[in-house]
Structure formats: structure tokens, C-alpha cells
């Protein structure tokens, strides 16, 4: 499951740099499909790999998939295939100067296709390894694996218009996440040195014997570190820049996979290992999450760049997930898990649409008057509306369950009831904000402005509707959005036992 | 006084010394046979490294140069820790020998290199102050001569800086040694004598002072802040291979010497009162080195100067695990230094393969734009070395080394130093990624330096070093196992 995409990714980055784009694409697609298929198979059969790696550090190659990680593994596998397929639509390794002011239309290669695809595969591999790791230090190392490939994706294949912006966004991304992961490392080391084990299965029972001060310390370090990745409110400033600049596939990976590493880590490390310590800081986390919901929503109301807008809506959605986690209830945890998956699918859908629009229009500034998308490109328009409807939490679509259950879970929390209920009220207002900004975008982009008939025709020519690979990617994501909204039990039933075991076993 | 001597254990230090004598003999017999002399030197270093291997793998104690019972003291330790350092020093010197072009290498260069290697291998294994002091200077002084040997004004200036520093450092070391003997009444560096002396309250200040002065003297050799001032000028002014030697073999020898001095303190770390002053001094060194080195490295555009400041920062990382004063800390420090030395050697070799060996070649960051496409071998090895130094996968061993180094202080509860390490790690990533980012991108033929003609040896060193990094990244246990 890890070997195939990892090895092919490495090979593409190192040896296969000179490969023709077409060959590289096929190789990457095969690798992603094989890796994805094995990942899906593994999350059904649940094999358990356990080998010693660095005995003197107590690090083991311990890979195992349980109810909490299985949906995320499947999500990552599917997204992995989709981003590679998307390479047929958008080719960031080509330098597209046609939208620059000089309008020369010069197309030259600015990086090798193989490196780009290899980096995509490496990010997916790293994420799969994180979700499957059952050893705290292995978890950390896998966590770090995704950094450099993602940095290359943003810095090298990002927004072709501004090199300075790319450098800024990629540097921000790597430095912020490095702060987070190093803090997390210190937290992990506190746990490992005090308990003497790095195995995630044994940590909860071993850490139960620690005094409350150490537990709190470990929980603070771990939560702070992972909160950067999620990202939780005051630590989110790297995300919009990274999202805006990254190529579409990079944005999709960031939103659908990388952010999940943060929330998954929160479930695995502080909540499972040091529940008492986590309970102490949970109110702070809940408040930060709610502030994130409101903050993200307010910015979305005024943000002009559509890609940044979606990025801020990600911050808001992750606020709900964090609120669910902070509630400390089984329901809240379940909500966080399904919210994770839903956000992964929906934000991927939106980023594909918006990335496609940016690709066609050259920019996605909402202040530029454009003809209605529903007339120009109805299929793309429908995908956008579907994504926005899901994002505002419409019942029957994926995100609804995550938000609804998170609110219910936080309302029925046993500890800090008053504070959490206040948070729920504020978060509900945030959900209304989501409706407001989603409708704003729909009005501007989908309904559009009245333009003369002649301009409409040229707009049609400039904005070809989606088809082929892009359509396939969009339909998979769209179907998943609806399916998860109608039958949330496909995820909930898988996570239920594990979530109960996680909280039950630690209490 | 008779000494029981196990010659086999002394071989790692004796073979380079023997090779040095042989080189001198060959020079006397057949002057000008440079190739033969270089081969003899290389064989001496390689054989020395080979004889250190049994020590690395040994499970039981390997002590020699023991005085007769009843109070038998052993002056030489051939255990895993010193043996690993010995092998590292010898192989690093071998790599430096390869970087010095064989055509230009003379008998003086060879003799000095071998002398320095012999001194380094001896100091890490020594257990008494006499051997320790003499061999430490044997490891240092030839390097000063090497810096100055090529007759250039800038190099002489660099050598003078290094010489002045070394004299101050030597003075401190002698003072520290004298204080140690005064405090313990024992010229050997053992935990028992320290623990016995520590029991008497009036001796504690003298002992602490001895350790602090010794650490200060060694900090010069480690180029830890605030004793680092010589490092950037010397590394940039001297020949590139000597800079590589200073960053690899010399650093390993200095760390080995520090480990020897600090090892006895493990016996009193749990005592009441513990050696708090010593720990604070070590913490101060670590924090200052990591922060100053990284921040200064962030501003450099000349690559050797950047590497020089990064060596200052890495000195902080090397001392970091030692602040815990534990056996695990010693192992971690040695492991970290080995990883650093390999990565630094690869980086220097790649720089040597990109530019010529001289200072006048414009060794600027801009020269590396797009090097990954222009020169995949030098660029690729350099990229991996930078990632290892930054501690980012795919340079997994760099990350593992950071984890290992951070473990002992966290276990000992030294929070301030752990927090600073987090900051330094992130700043360090900024330093190396800044260079790493230049490697990508469009090749710019205007700023590209002319590829030096003779660079096979440098490329070979870079490739072998990269192979070591890759193997260690897949199987970190190979390095960490013997040191645990």
C-alpha cells in the first residue's frame, strides 16, 4: 500500500525526471491506482504489520488500520487517484504565459512533469503512512515526510503569475508546519520518555499513571503542535496563502488530506493518550475553534479571491471539527470524524471547480464582472452550487452531519457544559454566516451579471464547460458528497466501535 | 609502574601514526613519489577504520593500558562509543584526503592529515588527562598548519585566528586539567574518583570550576558560541578540503574529547546537590550556539560562510543531548555528530565539485540556481545533504538524529533548552531550505560557474557520503544500535 506509490514517486522525482509527461502520467496513475486499491483492501481486511525498525529508540514499523483511520485511508486513496487524474486537466509543469499581461502565449516547460507527479504520490504515501502508523515516532516521521514534496508543489508548481508569492507561501507553509511538528515531537518525547513506550496502543494505559501536570504538559504540546496543521484559529495564517498559490491538485491534497493529518493526530495522540490532560485544555480549544468558525465566516463575506475564500471556509469547517473533538463526548468525536471526511470531499470538489475557473479565467477575483456560470458552463456551475450547498451545511449533503453532530455533541458535553453550550450557540451563528457567504458566491459566480449577448458568446468560448477527466473527477466527488449526506452510516458505523473504544478505554 | 597493553585496541590510533612514519620514510627514500605516499596514507586511514570495527560491535568492556592491581586504572577505552568516533574520524580524514587533489598533495599535507587523525582517534579513547591533553593538541595543531600551508595571505590570516584561538583554548584546558587534579587528586577521568571527591563539600567548587574551564576550552574546538569567532573566517579563508576537515573530523574529535570529560559527571548527576552549575553552562552553550549560528546562517549568501555558521549552529545540537549528563546523552551526541559530519562532508564535496578549490571562485548562492537540472549528481547529493542538516525527510537520518538528540534533555526535564531547540530547528529549516530552494528552478547559464575539470574525487566523496545517508535513513539502527 505504501510501497508502490512511494517507490514510484521517489523514482519519478529522482531517476525519471527526463521522462515524457505522458509516460510519467500513466506511471503515476497506475501507481496511485494500485496503491489506492491496496489501501482500500487493507482498510477492509485490516492486516497488521509489526516489525522492529530502530530498536534502540523503540521505533517499530507498526502499521495497522482501525475504525478511526479506515475512512481516512480510503479518502486519501481516492483523492490520490483523483489528483493524478487531474494532471490530465491542469498541467502545472507547463509555463502558461497566455494570461500574463504581455499575452505572448508562450508556453515553455518550467519543471518536469515527473517531479510534479512524484511529489503528488509522495504526499499521498506520507499521508497513508500517518494514518496507518501505530507508533508515535513513526507517526511523527511520516508526518514530516509530506512536508518537502508539498513544499515543492507549492513553491515550484504554484501560481505561475508571481514567483515572490510562491516563495512566500511555500516558506510559510514549511515553517509553520515545522513549528507545529517540532512541538508535537517534544510532546511525543515527553510521553515516550516518561512511559517508556512509543506504541500508540500501549500509550493510553501507560500514560494513565503519569501525574496530571505531566499529562497536561504533554497534551498542551501535542495539541499546540497539531493545531497548526488543522489549523485552529490563531495559527491558521499559513493556510490561505498556501491554498491560493498551490496548483489545484495541491490545494485538493492540502484540504482533503493534509489538514486531516492534524485532526487525526489530535484524536490519536492527546485525546487517546492523555485524556485528562486534554480535558483541561479542551475549553480553550473549543473557544479557538468557534472563533475560527466566526472569523472564517466573516472573512468569507468580504474576501474577493475565490480560492482564498474557500481556504477560509476550510478554517471555519475545521472549527466545527475541533469543537466536536473538544466536547469530549463520543458523539462529538464521531462528528469530528465524519466532519473530517465530509470536509475532505467537499473542499476537494470546490477546489477542483475553483481551480478550473482560475485556470480558465486567469484569476478568480469576485469583483470582476463575468457572465453567469450557469449559462456559460452549466455542468461546472452545477458542481459549484453543489459544493457550496454542501459547504453551507444543507441537510442531505455531506457536511451537514459533521456540523449537526458536532453541535449536538458539544451541547451534551459532561464537562464545561456552560462554556461549551455558549460555544454551540456562537457556532450556530457561524453556520448562518456560512449560508450567507455561500449564497454570495453563488450569486456572483453562478447567477452572474447581465452582459450583452455578444460578450456571452465570447465568454462561452473562453470558458469551455467541463468534460473528460475533469468531469470524471467532479462527478466522483459530487456523488460522494450526496452519498455521504444521504447515508452517513457508511462512515459512522465504521468509526462507532473505535470511537467508543477510544473514549471508553481511556476513561 | 608497568602497563598491561592490548595492542589490538590501540591499532586505530597506531595505524595512522605508522602510516605517517611510512610516508616520511618514502619521502626520504624516493622524493616525489606522491602517488605512492597518497596510497600509503589512504591505506593507513582505511586500515585504522577497519580495526575500529570490532570495537563498534563489542558488547563487553574493552579497556587497556591498565596499571597493575590493586588500584588498577585503565587509560584507554576501546568500547563502542570511542570506536565509532574513531572510525568516523578516520573515514572523514580519508574523504578529505580524496578532496585534496592527488596531484597537488605533498608530503606535508599527508603528514599533517595523518597526525591530526592519529591525535583525534587517541583523544576519544583516552581516559587520563595526560594522554587526553597531548593527543587533543595533536589533533588540533596540524590543522592550523594545514590552513596556513598554502601560501596565501587570507589563509595565513585564517590560520593566525585559529592559532590564537587554539592557544587560548590550550591554556584553558591545562588550567582545567590542573584544577581537576587538584580537586580529585587523580589524573584519570573516572566516575569513581569524581564521586569520592564530590562527597566533600569544600571540593565541589574546584571540581565544578575544573569542568567548566575544560568545557570552555573544548567549546573553542567545537566552535560553540561564544567561542566560535574563528570559525567563519578560517573556514572561508582556508582551502575547501581543510574546511571540510574542520567541519567533520575535527568536530568528531572535539565531541569525543568533550564526552570523555563529561562522562565522569554521570556518577554525581543524581547526587544532592547535583552539578547544576555545569548543566547551566552546557545549556548556555547549547542555546547560544543554536540561536546565534542559525540566525547568522540565515543572512549568508556565500555558501562556505553559510556552512561555517551552520557548523556553529550544529555545535549547539551536538551539545544539546550532553546537557542531560547521561549515558544516553553521550550516545546521542556521538550519533548526531556522525550524521552531521557525513552530511557536512557531502555538502563540502558538492561545493568542491561545483566550484574550484579556491576562495576566488565566486561561491555564491546564485551559482546554484537550477543546479539540479544542470548537474544532477552534485545537485542531488547537495540537496539530500541539506535536507539531512535541516532534519527533513527524505533525509530521514537527519530527522532521527534530531529526535535522538532531543530525547535526553526532555527525559531530564530541561524544558528551556527543549523550547529553544524547537525554535532553532525551525530556523534551521529556513536556513537550509533557502539554499535548497535555489537548487530548483530554471538554470541560469550566466551565473553558472565553470565546472572544474578535475572533480572525479569530489563527486566520488559526495556519492559515497550520499550512499551512507541513504543506507542510514533506511536502517538508522546501524548507527544507533552500537551507541545505545
Would you kindly provide a written description of the structure presented here, covering whatever features stand out?
The complex is a heterodimer of chains A (507) and B (484). Chain A is built from 21 helices and 4 strands. Chain A is mostly helical. Chain A has one domain. In chain A, helix 3 (69-86) packs parallel to helix 14 (330-361), helix 4 runs parallel beside helix 11 (248-273) and helix 14 runs antiparallel to helix 17. The two termini of chain A are 34 Å apart. The model of chain A is unreliable at 96-109 (pLDDT under 50). Chain B has one domain (3-483). With 484 residues, chain B is an all-alpha fold. A 3-stranded antiparallel sheet of chain B has the order 1-2-3, with helices on one face.
Keywords:
heterodimer; A: 507 residues; mainly alpha; two-stranded antiparallel ribbon; 21 helices; 4 strands; globular; B: 484 residues; three-stranded antiparallel sheet; 20 helices; 2% strand
Instruction: Summarize the main sheet of chain B.
Output: 3 strands, antiparallel
Give the domain tally of chain B.
Answer: 1
Shape of chain A: globular
- Low-pLDDT residue spans of chain B: none
Distance between the termini of chain A: 34 Å
DSSP strand (E) fraction of chain B? under 5%
Number of E-state strands of chain A? 4
Shape of chain B: globular
**End-to-end separation of chain B:** 35 Å
Strand order of the largest sheet of chain A: 1-2
What series of H and E elements makes up the topology of chain A? HHEEHEEHHHHHHHHHHHHHHHHHH
Strand content of chain A: under 5%
**SSE succession of chain B:** EHHEEHHHHHHHHHHHHHHHHHH
Nearest-integer average pLDDT of chain B: 87
Structure annotation, total helices of chain A: 21
Average pLDDT level of chain A: 79
**Range of helix content of chain B:** over 70%
Rg over C-alpha atoms of chain B, rounded to the nearest angstrom: 21 Å
Rounded to the nearest angstrom, the radius of gyration of chain A is 22 Å
Strand order of the biggest β-sheet of chain B? 1-2-3
| Assembly of the depicted chains | heterodimer
GO cellular component, one term (chain B): membrane
Keywords (chain B): Membrane, Transmembrane, Transmembrane helix
Transmembrane segments (chain B): 6-26, 38-59, 79-100, 107-125, 131-149, 161-182, 206-230, 242-265, 277-299, 306-327, 333-355, 376-401, 413-436, 457-479
Domain NADH:quinone oxidoreductase/Mrp antiporter transmembrane (chain B): 126-427
Amino acid at each position: 500500500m505504501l510501497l508502490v506509490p512511494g517507490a514510484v514517486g521517489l523514482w519519478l522525482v529522482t531517476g525519471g525526471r527526463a521522462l515524457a509527461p505522458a509516460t510519467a502520467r500513466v506511471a503515476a496513475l497506475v501507481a496511485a491506482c494500485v496503491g489506492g486499491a491496496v489501501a482500500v483492501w487493507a482498510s477492509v481486511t485490516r492486516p497488521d504489520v509489526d516489525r522492529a525498525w530502530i530498536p534502540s529508540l523503540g521505533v517499530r514499523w507498526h502499521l495497522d488500520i482501525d475504525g478511526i483511520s479506515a475512512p481516512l485511508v480510503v479518502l486519501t486513496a481516492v483523492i490520490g487517484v483523483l489528483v493524478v487524474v487531474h494532471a490530465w486537466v491542469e498541467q502545472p509543469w507547463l509555463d502558461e504565459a497566455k494570461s500574463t499581461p504581455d499575452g505572448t502565449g508562450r508556453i515553455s516547460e518550467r519543471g518536469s512533469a515527473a517531479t510534479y507527479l512524484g511529489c503528488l504520490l509522495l504526499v499521498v504515501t506520507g499521508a497513508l503512512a500517518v494514518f496507518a502508523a501505530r507508533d508515535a515516532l513513526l507517526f511523527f516521521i511520516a508526518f514530516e515526510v509530506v512536508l518537502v514534496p508539498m513544499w515543492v508543489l507549492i513553491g515550484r508548481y504554484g501560481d505561475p503569475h508571481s514567483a515572490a508569492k510562491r516563495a512566500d507561501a511555500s516558506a510559510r507553509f514549511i515553517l509553520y508546519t515545522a513549528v507545529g511538528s517540532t512541538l508535537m515531537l517534544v510532546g511525543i518525547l515527553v510521553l515516550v520518555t516518561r512511559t517508556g513506550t512509543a506504541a500508540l496502543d500501549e500509550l493510553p494505559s501507560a500514560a494513565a499513571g503519569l501525574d496530571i501536570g505531566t499529562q497536561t504538559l504533554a497534551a498542551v504540546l501535542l495539541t499546540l503542535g497539531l493545531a497548526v496543521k488543522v489549523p485552529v484559529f490563531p495559527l491558521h495564517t499559513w493556510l490561505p496563502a498556501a491554498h491560493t498559490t498551490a496548483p489545484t491538485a495541491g490545494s485538493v491534497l492540502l484540504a482533503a488530506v493534509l489538514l486531516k493529518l492534524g485532526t487525526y493526530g489530535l484524536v490519536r495522540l492527546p485525546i487517546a493518550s492523555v485524556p485528562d490532560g486534554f480535558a483541561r485544555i479542551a475549553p480553550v480549544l473549543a473557544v479557538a475553534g468557534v472563533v475560527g468558525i466566526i472569523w472564517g465566516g466573516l472573512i468569507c463575506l468580504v474576501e474577493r479571491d475565490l480560492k482564498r475564500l474557500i481556504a477560509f471556509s476550510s478554517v471555519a469547517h475545521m472549527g466545527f471539527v475541533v469543537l466536536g473533538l473538544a466536547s469530549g463526548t463520543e458523539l462529538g468525536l464521531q462528528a469530528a470524524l465524519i466532519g473530517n471526511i465530509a470536509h475532505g470531499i467537499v473542499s476537494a470538489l470546490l477546489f477542483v471547480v475553483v481551480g478550473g475557473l482560475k485556470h480558465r479565467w486567469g484569476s478568480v477575483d469576485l469583483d470582476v464582472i463575468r457572465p453567469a456560470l450557469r449559462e456559460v458552463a452549466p455542468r461546472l456551475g452545477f458542481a459549484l452550487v453543489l459544493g457550496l450547498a454542501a459547504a453551507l451545511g444543507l441537510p442531505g449533503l455531506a457536511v451537514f452531519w459533521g456540523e449537526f453532530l458536532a453541535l449536538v455533541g458539544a451541547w451534551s458535553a459532561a464537562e464545561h457544559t456552560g462554556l461549551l453550550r455558549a460555544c454551540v450557540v456562537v457556532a450556530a451563528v457561524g453556520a448562518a454566516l456560512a449560508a450567507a457567504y455561500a449564497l454570495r458566491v453563488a450569486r456572483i459566480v453562478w447567477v452572474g451579471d447581465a452582459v450583452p449577448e455578444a460578450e456571452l458568446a465570447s465568454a462561452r468560448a473562453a470558458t469551455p464547460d467541463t468534460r473528460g477527466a475533469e468531469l470524471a473527477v467532479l462527478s466522483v466527488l459530487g456523488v460522494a458528497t450526496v452519498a455521504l449526506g444521504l447515508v452517513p452510516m457508511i462512515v459512522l458505523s465504521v468509526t462507532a466501535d473505535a470511537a467508543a473504544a477510544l473514549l471508553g478505554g481511556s476513561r | 609502574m608497568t602497563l598491561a597493553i592490548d595492542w589490538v585496541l590501540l591499532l586505530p590510533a597506531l595505524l595512522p601514526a605508522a602510516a605517517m612514519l611510512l610516508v616520511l620514510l618514502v619521502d626520504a627514500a624516493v622524493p616525489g613519489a606522491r602517488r605512492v605516499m597518497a596510497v600509503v596514507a589512504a591505506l593507513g586511514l582505511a586500515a585504522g577504520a577497519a580495526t575500529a570495527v570490532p570495537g563498534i560491535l563489542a558488547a563487553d568492556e574493552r579497556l587497556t593500558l591498565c596499571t597493575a592491581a590493586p588500584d588498577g586504572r585503565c587509560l584507554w577505552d576501546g568500547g563502542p562509543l570511542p570506536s565509532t568516533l574513531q572510525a568516523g574520524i578516520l573515514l572523514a580524514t580519508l574523504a578529505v584526503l580524496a578532496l585534496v587533489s592527488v596531484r597537488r598533495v605533498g608530503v606535508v599535507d599527508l603528514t599533517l592529515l595523518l597526525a591530526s587523525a592519529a591525535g583525534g582517534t587517541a583523544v576519544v579513547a583516552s581516559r587520563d588527562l595526560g594522554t587526553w591533553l597531548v593527543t587533543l593538541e595533536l589533533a588540533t595543531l596540524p590543522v592550523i598548519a594545514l590552513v596556513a600551508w598554502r601560501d596565501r595571505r587570507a589563509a595565513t590570516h585564517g590560520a593566525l585566528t585559529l592559532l590564537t584561538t587554539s592557544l587560548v583554548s590550550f591554556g584553558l584546558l591545562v588550567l582545567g586539567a590542573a584544577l581537576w587534579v587538584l580537586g580529585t587528586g587523580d589524573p584519570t577521568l573516572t566516575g569513581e574518583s569524581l564521586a569520592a571527591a564530590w562527597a566533600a563539600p569544600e571540593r565541589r567548587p574546584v571540581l565544578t570550576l575544573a569542568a567548566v574551564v575544560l568545557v570552555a576550552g573544548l567549546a573553542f574546538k567545537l566552535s560553540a558560541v561564544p567561542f566560535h569567532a574563528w570559525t567563519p573566517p578560517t573556514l572561508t579563508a582556508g582551502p575547501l578540503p581543510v574546511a571540510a576537515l574542520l567541519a567533520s573530523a575535527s568536530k568528531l574529535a572535539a565531541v569525543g574529547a568533550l564526552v570523555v570529560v563529561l562522562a565522569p559527571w554521570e556518577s554525581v548527576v543524581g547526587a544532592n546537590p547535583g552539578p547544576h552549575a555545569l548543566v547551566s553552562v552546557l545549556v548556555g552553550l547549547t542555546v547560544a550556539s543554536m540561536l546565534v549560528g542559525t540566525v547568522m546562517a540565515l543572512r549568508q549568501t556565500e555558501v562556505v560562510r553559510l556552512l561555517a555558521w551552520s557548523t556553529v549552529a550544529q555545535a549547539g545540537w551536538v551539545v544539546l543531548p550532553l546537557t542531560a549528563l547521561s549515558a544516553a546523552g553521550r550516545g546521542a551526541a556521538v550519533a548526531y555528530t556522525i550524521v552531521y559530519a557525513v552530511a557536512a562532508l557531502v555538502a563540502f564535496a558538492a561545493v568542491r565539485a561545483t566550484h574550484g578549490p579556491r576562495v576566488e571562485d565566486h561561491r555564491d548562492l546564485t551559482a546554484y540556481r537550477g543546479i539540479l537540472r544542470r548537474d544532477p549528481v552534485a545537485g542531488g547529493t547537495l540537496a539530500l545533504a541539506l535536507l539531512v542538516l535541516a532534519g527533513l525527510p527524505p533525509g530521514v537520518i537527519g530527522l532521527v538524529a534530531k529526535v535522538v538528540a532531543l530525547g535526553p534533555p526532555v527525559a531530564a526535564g530541561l524544558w528551556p533548552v527543549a523550547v529553544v531547540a524547537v525554535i532553532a530547528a525551525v530556523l534551521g529549516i529556513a536556513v537550509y531550505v533557502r539554499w535548497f530552494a535555489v537548487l530548483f528552478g530554471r538554470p541560469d547559464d550566466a551565473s553558472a560557474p565553470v565546472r572544474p575539470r578535475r572533480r572525479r574525487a569530489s563527486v566520488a566523496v559526495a556519492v559515497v557520503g550520499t550512499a551512507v545517508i541513504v543506507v542510514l535513513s533506511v536502517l538508522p539502527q546501524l548507527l544507533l544500535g552500537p551507541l545505545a
